[in-house]
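Input.
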Amino acid sequence: MSQIQFQCPASPMPAASAPLQLGQPQPGYSIPCPSGTLPSESASQPIRSSSLPAGSATPYNTTPVSNMANPKEKTPMCLVNELARFNKIQPEYKLLCEQGPAHSKIFSVRLTLGDQHWEAEGTSIKKAQHSAAASALAETTLPKPTMRTPS
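Output.
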């Protein structure tokens, strides 16, 4: 049977005759590993039984993740900032209200660009701001900067 050893460098090693208390790990003690081998002893073979979802225990997961934002894609708030900078105005996001119980709040935000206003709601302040920015980009009458192509 293999054992995992750990030691806390800040505290001295307790006497070997001291009883082992279950619950909190004690510095300087060994913990038996129930599988018989440590993960480091069988590192050349992937973990077969895991509590993680299928595919997550392999070192290289090649399936694309659909809910992650493209890091090169600009957010609506970023595009509103560029629009405001182009028109030499300052965007202003104002929290109007928050409704609902603590575990499921709804936030209302107003975006002001010059003399134009947009209001939006979301489950977080950031989501409400993004929603207001997306509405502003679609409905604004302000001149928009030309899109630059990456070179």
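DSSP finds two helices and five strands in the chain.
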